[in-house]
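Entry 14. Ran structure prediction on the chain below.
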Amino acid sequence: MATISKYESVIIFKPNLGEEATSALLEKFKTLVSENGTLETVDEWGRRRLAYPIEDENEGIYVQFLFSSDNTFPAELDRQLKLSDGVLRSLIVRK
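Output, structure tokens:
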């Protein structure tokens, strides 16, 4: 039996995607989290300077998700984030 835990995820999107593509990716991940758990909050931090360049980018668009799900879903979310071209970096932690 899977247990339900609370998670926090921060996703950094590529800044050169454009507003529509960024919104589409954000909706994709919101839907994925909602289908596999309970999406509590989505906090869009906006465009920020990175601490160090990633893939020759100096800025990124930051979004934070707080959600609850069973303990098998974060691995699938991480896999989907890594497959997505518009994501520079992501981190998922259990709270």
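The longest strand covers residues 37-54. Will compare against last week's run tomorrow.
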